């Protein structure tokens, strides 16, 4: 009898988080990183950015997406602020959406001028960050909080104290991490914390977390990454893999490549060819490639353009064959398989 957790789905449209009982989300999530427009301090939200964010929200709600990804740092808090305003303006019931936020990255100069860019999982910072995020969002609680990037100085027991306090106060329902490697996941698990999700960068042009599972004795994965095993760790324990930058920043669906043009160009051509065959937009193939992986990946899509959001949504209506999936993988990783 297998002990592997089961990722249940509802016809591919939704994803039940195995480690969070009753927590079901749309298979595709909207990343709200750019909602606030400018990342510069002191630059207000423009009417154009407000309109773009509203159009994105209206589009995904109509498509049935209910999952929204934030971080305290996105556009220096303006993304959370605008999202909260729009949700109220559009009269979207709070309980009908899932709001995920992140904490732990601190900008240089915050709060004092000479302080460096750093990561901070201290109890005080985690709790203060959530309080400020809730204030900007104008909400009472977060559905999920992710620890954004591993703090090298963190004490997992202290992190656990912060988590327990935020949970007990009703401010956060579930907890996850982002950009965590298997050794770190093990470390936190020893302290009693298994995240419901780990959000990592994964797309057709950033395949190193897959490449790490394709080592042969004499060969390192494509970009020289050491064996990693993140996706296997997730699968064994029921941790949802959230993919950030799932559209590969648009480079495979119309954006002119400004790096590695040969590899990007070849992959984009193949994406287009497969999209034509399935009668969908290229964005759908880029997202469907993630959905085809057995880790039950939840792409966190960052475009604000309604037409691109609809194009991504088409991914739910196709399934790539093994041959299509591997052809795309080979093109994207840019080196042959062993
Ligand atoms: N955990 C982490 O460390 C981390 C890091 C980064 C991001 N994230 C999350 O992941 C989400 C998605 O990441 P992402 O936005 O960086 O990557 P993405 O979803 O791969 O790409 C979206 C970006 O690409 C642009 N784009 C898409 N198609 C395009 C085209 N044909 N031409 C020109 N531009 C195009 C979009 O601009 P338009 O809006 O104009 O379409 C948008 O800026 C974020 O919103 C955030 O929630 C998490």
From TrEMBL:
GO terms for cellular component: cytosol. GO terms for molecular function: oxidoreductase activity. It comes from the Bacteria. Residues 27-326 form the NADP-dependent oxidoreductase domain. It holds the Pfam family Aldo_ket_red. This is Aldo/keto reductase. It comes from Oceanipulchritudo coccoides.
